[in-house]
Amino acid sequence: MNTTLENKAGASLGASLGIVGVLGGMGPLATIDFMHKMLRATPAASDQEHVPVVVSSIPQVPDRTAAWRGEGASPLAAMLASGQRLAEAGAGLVVMPCNTAHLWFDELHAALGLPMLHLVDVALAEALALAGQGARIGLLATDATLASALYQQRELAHADFQWLLPTVQERADLVMPGIAAVKAGDLARGATLLNQAAEALAQRGAQALVLGCTEIPLVLGPVSSPLPMVDATAALARRAVAWSLAQREAALAV
Amino acid sequence: MNTTLENKAGASLGASLGIVGVLGGMGPLATIDFMHKMLRATPAASDQEHVPVVVSSIPQVPDRTAAWRGEGASPLAAMLASGQRLAEAGAGLVVMPCNTAHLWFDELHAALGLPMLHLVDVALAEALALAGQGARIGLLATDATLASALYQQRELAHADFQWLLPTVQERADLVMPGIAAVKAGDLARGATLLNQAAEALAQRGAQALVLGCTEIPLVLGPVSSPLPMVDATAALARRAVAWSLAQREAALAV
């Protein structure tokens, strides 16, 4: 296994090839969904034009929500071991298609020593590009994500904005039942409830919406929405693809 | 980078964890489809019960069909480099969810020094388990796959069977137009044509069918088919999952 320092040296080689490392398995289906989002974010007419990706989908990671509640072991060591596999495989950048895993982002980033993109930074940057500096950004996410303050505590350099959250009532009546309906396959009911939640945020002054949960974008799209919206993991996929394409271009320009 | 010998040593560690290495990117969508098939092949009620997978989806591999025709560079070096990433990431077994890539299987296997499963061996073993020794096994695949003799030349130890191929007429009238219809999204027409091709093989005495092309199982299923059938890449996914679960069980038993 490499050390952090060796990872840094290896990463510059991985970067020159534009290899994106996906630290997945949390869970495995979300990992596959993220790979789909990367494909959709790539302008490619042939296999060879798609970006190179290495994936570590090792689901044997202690439950993130339980750990955050203090009811289970920390997932950090398992996440670090999985990230280390990506370093060994030559990744030049690491991304995690899982909201809750980001509660350990800073510790993981420091220990791994590879460049990483933070889901919230990327989603917020896209939302501010849509709504402008100083905007109120609505956030739709699970109670657990909201309670963890994952989005609210993340500061973005030079960004002037304000998070706008669903009220306790809206969470209980619209957001959580909407997400549950999508998980249960009742997309029509999920769309109705989540659209009402988006509408409520719009009426309180939100100028763009961040969707911080993978179920919500399955029923809320740019067409049906009252506001411009950013699917956080899709934004992460777009930014990872853009990084890889830029690396490839830079390598060709040398 | 490891040597072949180091890969063998590393593989025994990877094997003890049951980590499946997917040598993908040929193409990226087929890789994602294969990961889905692995999920569906796994009896799991939680993330943690899914099998650990590392994926190298590096699509910058010279075109396999062009190389086989003698019209392009060999993909072997790029495939080996990609397989090497899986070795570095700790894979204990390597599989390739791409028919054409298997034309370089033996060379890759020898150079990589990791255990690998051959798509045709696995599909054929499942078909013989369904149809019995001595059976005639029908094969539906593209003209390119049939012309390469990938399936026909593969011998399985102790297996007594006979491949039964579509006639030139059936390939031109049913199989190739059926696959093209599926690729174009006309699933109803694809189903009709490919069912007719399956029916023709059944009438000539096929006792089971191997589907050696990822498009065919999208419209031909066990229900609609006149014969028991094996989707070759799904069989590979099932066997890879079974390998991983057996490794985990063996490690727990120690």
* CATH class designation of the largest domain in chain A: Alpha Beta
Mean pLDDT of chain A: 91
Number of helices of chain A: 10
* Structural class category of chain A: alpha/beta
The main pleated sheet of chain A reads as: 4 strands, parallel
Across the major sheet of chain A, the strand order is 5-4-6-7
Radius of gyration of chain A: 18 Å
- Number of structural units classed as domains of chain A: 2
Identify the CATH architecture of the largest domain in chain A: 3-Layer(aba) Sandwich
Number of strands of chain A: 7
Shape of chain A: globular
Kindly report the CATH topology of the largest domain in chain A: Rossmann fold
* Helical amount of chain A: 40-55%
Largest interface: A-B, 32 and 32 residues
The termini of chain A sit apart by: 31 Å
Oligomer: homodimer
Low-confidence stretches of chain A: none
Tell me the strand percentage band of chain A: 5-15%
What is the H/E order of chain A?
HEHEHHEHHEHEHHEEH
Keywords:
homodimer; 254 residues; alpha/beta; Rossmann fold; 4-stranded parallel beta sheet; 3-stranded parallel beta sheet
Please describe what this structure looks like.
The structure is a homodimer of 254-residue chains. By secondary structure, the first copy, chain A, is α/β, with parallel strands linked by helices. In chain A, 50% of the residues lie in helices and 12% in strands. Chain A has two domains: 3-118 and 235-253, Rossmann fold (3-Layer(aba) Sandwich); 120-232, Rossmann fold (3-Layer(aba) Sandwich). Chain A is built from ten helices and seven strands. In chain A, the strands form two sheets. In chain A, strands 5-4-6-7 form a four-stranded parallel beta sheet, sandwiched between helices. A three-stranded parallel beta sheet of chain A has the order 2-1-3, sandwiched between helices. In chain A, strand 4, helix 7 and strand 5 form a beta-alpha-beta unit. The model of chain A has no long low-confidence stretch (mean pLDDT 91). Chains A and B meet through helix 2, strand 2 and helix 4 of A and helix 2, strand 2 and helix 4 of B. Strand 2 of chain A pairs antiparallel with strand 2 (53-57) of chain B.
